[in-house]
Amino acid sequence: MSLESKLRRIIGTDTIKPVPKVKSESIQIDRLIDGDWVECDSARVFIREHESNAEKVTGDNLQTMQSVCELSKTPLAENLLFLDTETTGLAGGTGTFAFMVGIGRLSSGKFITTQYFMPGFGDESLMLEEIAGRIEHDDVLVTFNGKTFDIPLLETRYLINRLKNPFQMEHIDLLHYARVIWRDTLDSCSLQSLERNILELHRFNDTPGYMIPQLYFDYIRRGTPDAMPGIFEHNVIDIESMHRILIRIADILDNPNSRHFDSPLEQLRVARYHRNKGRMQSALEFLCNATDTQDNRLRDRAHHEIAFIHKQKGDYQSAFECFSKVTSCPDLTVSASVEMAKHLEHRVKDYQGALELTMKAIQTYKTERAFGTHTGRDIISALYHRQNRLLSRLRKMQSG
């Protein structure tokens, strides 16, 4: 006995109303949206192209594309492939479908977004084949949170349909870089937050993303395409916004004097990004700009990091001078005092100066911090150990 039959016996035959099955052939969205149908056997895919002026999409001079190409490791901006999906849910897994895939790329001064839409679940394989035919072997993929969601989802769909995965390429996930730059200055690094706060772009009458899965299911069940134009437009805006954000990110990461910086804190975060990549000279340039602030704590953090870069390079005197500029932030002051004490003790052999700096660090720590944490005990223990060692050396020098 089928599950439906069992439910009818328990609940009653009049309670359960079957959902009408609508054939994809009867769902005509081309009366509302310009596009073309591609058919193969019984499957159909609707393909729409949307064209924008590239200058309008970037919002910047196209010369900044050079920075984009350096970031993406591709010699040609035309090889950048911007991708965004609209899906039947956010949970992922084998039960989630990407019913629309939008792909944008530059071409002859235009930004062209091609959208692939499947009117029914049985049309998925044809849609995936059409998308694969659009992708070149030297493309560089650009997404927003695509490494976590969009691409794993599509790879799963290609696997289920026994098709070759076309997304084995270089991949730039803009969410990662957005967090590098703006995590400490924006409440959210979502795409629409970046549109409002970074691009100053405001959507009007936009179809909310959380409604899109239900609107698609309504379309499948009822065959009414009235909500589809809003979904197509939402997808286009997402893709064009990604292009603008990539331009902005590339300029910020490449140029310490970029006009797109809004805060020295952003300079500091980009400096850390370069330092983690081993680009010490670039990190120093951004950090020097970050010191130009009235925020004492932020200025201390910048000088503190500059000092450690000099120390890592073996320029201990420059490191000492930068550590001496850390004066306002207690925890950084303790660290800087210890670093200066190390320099005076081990390289200059100025034990009295090292002792004074160590005692200053102890006093700062006792004044500004409460005892009791494991970390606190470790810090104060190391400071007292250094103080006792220096006192012992000074006594030996005096007795000698």
Descriptive account of the structure:
This protein is α/β, with parallel strands linked by helices and 400 residues long. The protein folds into 2 domains: 233 residues, Ribonuclease H-like superfamily/Ribonuclease H (Nucleotidyltransferase, domain 5), CATH 3.30.420; 136 residues, Tetratricopeptide repeat domain (Serine Threonine Protein Phosphatase 5, Tetratricopeptide repeat), CATH 1.25.40.10. The chain has 16 helices and 7 strands. A hairpin with a 2-residue loop joins strand 1 and strand 2.
Which secondary structure elements does this structure contain, and how are they paired or packed?
Blueprint (H helix, E strand, L loop, with lengths): L2 H9 L24 E5 L2 E11 H5 L6 H8 L7 E8 L10 E10 L2 E8 L6 H9 L7 E4 L2 H15 L9 E4 H9 L8 H7 L14 H11 L5 H27 L9 H13 L3 H11 L5 H18 L2 H8 L6 H19 L2 H18 L5 H26 L1
Parallel strand pairs: 3-6, 6-7
Antiparallel strand pairs: 1-2, 2-5, 3-4, 4-5
Provide key terms for this protein.
Serine Threonine Protein Phosphatase 5, Tetratricopeptide repeat; alpha/beta; seven-stranded mixed β-sheet; single chain; Nucleotidyltransferase, domain 5; 400 residues; 53% helix
Oligomeric state as shown: single chain
CATH topology of the largest domain: Nucleotidyltransferase, domain 5
The CATH architecture term of the largest domain is: 2-Layer Sandwich
**Could you give me the name of the CATH homologous superfamily of the largest domain?**
Ribonuclease H-like superfamily/Ribonuclease H
Q: Write down the overall geometry.
A: elongated
CATH class of the largest domain: Alpha Beta
- Largest sheet: number of strands, sense, barrel closure: 7 strands, mixed
- Indicate the proportion of strand residues: 5-15%
- Which segments are poorly predicted (pLDDT under 50) over 5 or more consecutive residues? 13-26
Tell how many strands the DSSP assignment holds: 7
- Strand order in the sheet with the most strands: 1-2-5-4-3-6-7
- Look at the helices and sheets and give the structural class: alpha/beta
- Helix coverage percent of residues? 40-55%
In whole angstroms, the N-to-C terminal distance is 101 Å
Mean pLDDT level: 87
Count of separate structural domains: 2
The Cα radius of gyration reads 30 Å
Compute the number of helices: 16
